[in-house]
Write a structure and sequence with these properties.
Strand order of the largest sheet: 3-4-2-5-1-6-7-8
CATH architecture: 3-Layer(aba) Sandwich
CATH superfamily: P-loop containing nucleotide triphosphate hydrolases
Mean pLDDT: 88
Low-confidence stretches: none
Largest sheet: 8 strands, mixed
Number of strands: 8
Strand content: 15-25%
CATH class: Alpha Beta
Bound molecules: adenosine-5'-diphosphate, magnesium ion
Order of helices and strands: EHEHHEEHHEHEHEHEHHHH
Radius of gyration: 19 Å
Amino acid sequence: MVRVYTLASGKGGTGKTTVTVNLGTCLAQLGKETFIMDADIGMANLGLVLGLEDVPITLHEVLAGKANIKDAIYEGPAGLKVVPSGISLQGFQQADPEKLKDALKELVNLCDYLLIDAPAGISRDGVIPLAIADEVILVVNPELSSIVDALKTKILTEVVGGHVMGAILNRSGVEKADFVSQKMEKVLGVKVIGTIPEDPNIRKATSFKTPVVIKYPDSGASIALRRIAANMAGMPFKESPQAAKDGFVDRFAKVLFRGKR
Ligand SMILES: Nc1ncnc2c1ncn2[C@@H]1O[C@H](COP(=O)(O)OP(=O)(O)O)[C@@H](O)[C@H]1O
Ligand SMILES: [Mg+2]
């Protein structure tokens, strides 16, 4: 069973952190024991997005040999477990890759899914998460430059012995989404496992330090993210709990009124 996924992209800003946090939350909502781990030290890192920026022990301390990974696990929304990283990159650069592997081994024993938010680019700390995941998921925007970057990341992943499972098209427009995702599949040679629309609710949710799937569960992005999570978990997809309920009320009303017309 695939357990460790790395969310990756060639450049920053494609939505890796957003997808990691929200997909992780959706998997947790589906009852899966899910961990997310920050290996991205960008601006909007996992800790900041979830309000965990001031926690004392992070992956940084673990990789520096100063703490155990179990002490760097924090409670997120819907039972999601979060392993934040320090703000500084140094923890990673000085880290012994074996330490990271050991830490991961411990985490994997505790969970159904581990999602790793990878740093962009081809630095050493960027390559390790590509190599150690069971599967890499590329987070791509609908621009040619992003697709080309994703292709580079795919090649890099294969060079270091990893495997790309598929791509998520993030920030897609309403029009041409199918066209773009078909193009992407051709250029990247991987399946597009989901499409997330451009959605202003994502940024709004960030200011509440809450994932969009919790803050605005009926938004377009949230529905798309739940669909991807359900597919990953091999579970049936419900558009929204409310929609399912409405559907039930509609059907119930139809049955009630059927004989009366
Ligand atoms: N589908 C989307 N619609 C609108 N804004 C988005 C979407 N996905 C990401 N963003 C915004 O884009 C910015 C970069 O996203 P982020 O997840 O931090 O990217 P990365 O981790 O790849 O650098 C953030 O401000 C985020 O709120
Ligand atoms: Mg990020």
